[in-house]
Structures are given as C-alpha cells and as structure tokens.
Amino acid sequence: MESLEQILVNHFSRTPAMLAQDIYKLLFQAALGCEHAVDDEKSVRIWLAREWSEMGAGPSDPLLDPISPDGQILRIHLRPYLRSGKDPEILLKAFLRTATEWRGSTEMLKAYGEQAAAQLQAGTVPNRPEGIEAYFARLEKQGFPAVHHSEEYTRLYRPAYRVIARQFLEVI
Description:
mainly alpha; about 170 residues
C-alpha cells in the first residue's frame, strides 16, 4: 500500500510531463476502475488485439503499477506483460471482471482530487501550472466523465495498459 502522495511522486518521476488531464485520468482510474472502458467483450477483445499489434516500443514501465492508495487498483502495463510471455486472454478476462464486478465511487475521486491539489500546492509533488483544482471542478460539474490522456502525455509516453482490480490478479 502506498499513499496518494507516493503514487503521484512515482508517476511524476516516470512521466514528468503529466498535465492536469493525466492526473485526473490516473485518479479517475484509481477511484472508478475501468467500467467506463467496456461496451462489450467483443469490442474489448478487438481493442486489446489492436493495441498489442500497434503499441510498439515505449518506456520501461513496471508490469504491476498500483494506482490506488489501498493497492486494490493497478495498471497492468502491456509491454512488460507481453515480454513476460503471459497469455493475453488471461489479462482480457481480468480486465472484463474488473469492469463488471468492481465498483468505485465518485466520492473517492473527489477526495483524491482534493488530496492531489493539496499536495501540489504544498509542493510535496511536482507542481503543475494548469490548475488541478479548476480542472477537477470543471469535470465534477460534468459528472466526472472519463477522459483520454493528454496529447503530450500520449506522444511522450505511449501509454499501453489495462486497469485491473487486485482481487482478479489470481488469474494473472
């Protein structure tokens, strides 16, 4: 288990160009998992297969990347997963189970946003000029929708991962 501060420091150390949008996405996934990412199994299967074939080289991410302070939600990075020789079908099933069986809360997302803003203001994690508080406030008014990574983050870090609840790691 890590504190939210440790999670943010870890992510800023690996991806220092994170913008408010990317911080929000990280905290959104930590609080709400991946339920927004699943329409049906067939489309998720096609999405994963396409990403396997198109992701190419990228940063040296860890295989398991805890993103929630309680350690229950993780990003499973696809490049190290693929290099390990693990079965994509197992990852797909864990992702689908997370999307259909795990439930988070917008209250937790709001709390994470407040904590992150306080840490950014206090300087305990790298400060970003784009105003995390204003970004969260705007998205809260919209009902906390899912967002994509910023264009800069995507260009620099080529993210490729799936959000999985730790309880489903037994299949990995």
